[in-house]
Amino acid sequence: MSSSTATTCKVPVSALKAAPYSLDWGTNVHATVEAINAYGFSTVSAAGNGAIITTTPGAPYLLTEVVASRTKSTLGLSWTAPDSIDGVVIIDYKVNVAEQGQSNTITATGVMGTSYTVTGLTAGKTYEFKVEARNSNGYSPSSGVLTLLCASAPDSPTTITTANVNDKVTVSWNQPETNGSPITAYKIFIRSKDLTFYQESI
Q1: Which residues contact 57 (CB under 8 A, 6 or more apart)?
Q2: Is residue 165 in some structural domain?
Q3: What is the pLDDT of residues 107-145, one digit of tens each?
């Protein structure tokens, strides 16, 4: 009860969550008021409400790779935003990344929108990504983990040569950069008389 003659009273959310009120997150706050003067108390007002004990957002979900962003040193991810809690909107996101088996590090804060491209990664290493949403009450729990190998298609073979060896023609080349994923096969194309290239073997 307040002894002030003002017509507002501010109650800390921490007090409303504690005994004797013990209001849960997301609970509507209902209040009644009595007026007092030298002759006593008024009757109790009708209950009013409008405030809600707000909380941090739920975790982002459905993390997935943005394939178009993949290179030998970058990986892109997108996610689905959690619902706003009782009208408290999402402000931005925090992206956490770690090499698989290592501790998470914060890659970016203040990420606007529901996608992000992580740069400066090492080809051939596997990374784990998690995302947190933030509203005016703080950060959400982390999303589920998205695990991706940082790798892309290999570079083109170089120094292509042909040579006669007995009754065969040998085609040779230098192995290109694998870009994080071992080369499993090659396609060889031979040019025909009309200068069209045809696949000879794999």
Answers
A1: 82, 83, 84, 85, 88, 90, 133, 134, 135, 140
A2: yes
A3: 999 999 999 999 999 999 999 999 999 998 889 999 999
CB burial class (10 A; 0-12, 13-18, 19+) of residue 129? buried
Same domain membership, residue 164 and residue 193: yes
Same domain for 101 and 132?
yes
Same domain, 81 and 104: yes
Q: Are 135 and 57 in contact (CB under 8 A)?
A: yes
Range of the domain at 179: 158-201
> Shortest CA distance to 177 belongs to which of 72, 70, 25?
72
Give the SS3 label for residue 34. Answer: coil
**Cα separations in angstroms, 110 against 76, 99, 140:** 17, 22, 14
